[in-house]
Design goal:
alpha+beta; six-stranded antiparallel β-sheet; 28% strand; single chain; nine-stranded mixed β-sheet
Length: 415
């Protein structure tokens, strides 16, 4: 990244691609020459000033009890239906017809993730594309003061040296899924087919990478119903020098993981980013550059500048959950209704994928909430919830302008 007086500033290369290789799966890359940039959207909880105060936010949740109904057994299917991202209209994707599908995007300036989760009608299989909380990465040796501050405040960027896929995703799987019941790491192997596909896509787009790495990671666990599951994560890392990124797709099933690779591949290949969304992102980039220039001049008053950056932003997790519910899409509501029911065998696995938690009121009503907090209070009538750190309580609810009498503290459902 150029310094404050540099020309490119925050503009960095980001390749959006989901590729599957080996085990009969394959994919194609898209938008390989797209430029992306981060914004001043920052996570206030990471600053020293905010650490001294309880972290709070207000978000909308959903938790309708779902009656027990028998589900027909489900296996792999080629019957896919194309749906559009209801949150930002950022992309379309083909998902299994009749499955519970969650499709949405997260946006932090020009950095965005296109996230898909699909659950089979019998609840025995989960397919997913991308992880909403994998950050973008910047090489610390090439970071200027603005980059360093953004990485400190924001959940969407980290300063880190390139970590090739074998090492990155072995750590990722252990940290992301290692708390699942009876978790067992089965093995990791290079996915040369995906690497070759990525290289061809980069060559076609005229993009050069210092390294392209892909792996298959296999593990197993016991789901919430006590059934042993096979899981597969396919991860890629791309190193462009100063900037690098990681992406992931995967599945878990009570059956054979390899039986669903064709489905996962078809979903990944179908994903198409909306050109109008990219044009809007380019416009946001120009606005971001202007904001950075303004903030750079304010750096002489460091504390005031820091607080201004924070005030300009909202926590990425708050934006994500609020925007999902604001979409009011039938498939989104169905997905979360399903996740809030009491008999979903893959709830824990899905919560780990989407970085969410299931919470429960004293009368058994369940809600899906972002996993960023330690304590949660829910208004059972409206579904609105507030979250914060261990010091979050009734006084913090009042500080947010909420009536503590309308809220009750909820328990986090284990898993």
């Amino acid at each position: 990244m150029a310094g404050a007086g540099g020309a490119r500033g925050w503009a960095v290369l980001a390749v959006t691609t989901v590729l599957l290789g080996g085990c009969g799966a394959s994919g194609t890359a898209s938008d390989a020459d797209r430029e992306a940039t981060t914004t001043s959207a920052a996570d206030a909880a990471t600053t020293e000033a905010e650490r001294d105060e309880p972290t709070t936010t207000v978000e909308e949740g959903r938790g309708d009890d779902i009656p027990d109904e028998p589900e027909a057994p489900a296996g792999p299917t080629s019957d896919l239906v194309t749906v559009r991202d209801p949150v930002n209209d950022a992309f379309t994707v083909a998902v299994p017809d009749g499955w519970d599908n969650l499709v949405y995007s997260t946006v932090d300036g020009q950095v965005h993730r296109e996230v898909v989760s699909s659950v089979s009608p019998d609840g025995a299989t989960v397919l997913f594309l991308s992880d909403p909380k994998i950050p973008s990465y910047w090489n610390p040796d090439q970071a200027d003061s603005i980059t360093e501050q953004f990485a400190e405040w924001s959940t969407s960027m980290d300063l880190a040296y390139y970590d090739a896929a074998p090492s990155y995703f072995q750590t990722y799987v252990d940290e992301k899924f290692g708390q699942l019941a009876d978790f067992a790491f089965e093995g990791i192997e290079e996915n040369t087919t995906t690497e070759q596909s990525l290289q061809r896509a980069a060559d076609d787009a005229g993009v050069q990478f210092l390294a392209i790495d892909a792996v298959d990671v296999r593990f197993s666990f016991t789901d919430d119903e006590g059934v042993r599951n096979e899981a597969l994560v396919i991860g890629t890392t791309l190193d462009s020098g100063p900037f690098w990124q990681a992406d992931v797709v995967g599945l878990a099933t009570a059956g054979r993981a390899d039986d669903y690779l064709d489905m996962l591949s078809a979903m990944a290949r179908s994903k198409q980013t909306n050109p109008d969304f990219i044009a809007l992102q380019d416009q946001r980039h120009q606005q971001t550059m202007a904001l950075i220039a303004q903030r750079t001049e304010e750096m002489t008053r460091q504390h005031e500048a820091n607080m201004a950056w924070i005030q300009d932003s909202a926590n990425a997790h708050q934006q994500r959950m609020a925007s999902i519910w604001a979409a009011n899409d039938a498939s989104v509501a169905s997905f979360y209704d399903r996740m809030a029911s009491s008999d979903v065998s893959h709830r824990s696995f899905l919560n780990y994928i989407n970085d969410e938690r299931t919470v429960q009121t004293t009368d058994g009503q369940r809600f899906q909430v972002d996993d960023s907090y330690q304590r949660y209070w829910v208004n059972p009538t409206t579904g609105e919830y507030a979250g914060g750190d261990v010091g979050f309580g009734e006084s913090q609810l009042r500080d947010l302008g909420l009536d503590p009498g309308s809220y009750q503290e909820v328990e986090i459902v284990p898993g």
